[in-house]
Amino acid sequence: MSRRSHRSRSSRRAPQFGLIAALAGLGLYAVLVGQVNWQPAVANYPALLVQGSINFLFTGDPLEEGTSGVNLNPSGTPYPYPDGTADTDQTDSYPSAVSGLVYVSDELSARGSSKITGAVVVGGMFTSQQLQALTLSYDSTYLSDPPPGFLAPVKMKIDPATWKHVVD
What we know:
Helix content: under 10%
Structural class: mainly beta
Number of domains: 1
Largest sheet: 10 strands, parallel
Strand content: 35-45%
Order of helices and strands: HEEEEEEHEEEEEEH
Number of strands: 12
Distance between the termini: 70 Å
């Protein structure tokens, strides 16, 4: 029995603002289902970090406050974060999308109307079963200003001018 069919973790109508989700690979296969609008809390940070595999099963339908019965952009949580607007009603609608860096250590599978704006880094295979429904839009922010942990290590050198010879 594969681990995908054995144990899974899924999310429907996921919260959207200032989210960095780190899904640990505890033998689980993560699934995001339905409407999702995610973006990082810090401009050059990842929106989603997955240790393991994940399956995007987005519907492409907008995430609507009225359907969920929750105000998704209350005071202190504007959309788009951080420079958007906040309100007290439950009448707003948001596109189903992931904005930011998406990192998956193993496999990423996208089905349905998946929209990702930013950068996608996948350690294994990235598959889409409905290619016409997959929208990838590259954002060079992650190349010009990579988040912590996504830089090549810097080789440290001692500056000879900083040495001082001391004799007792």
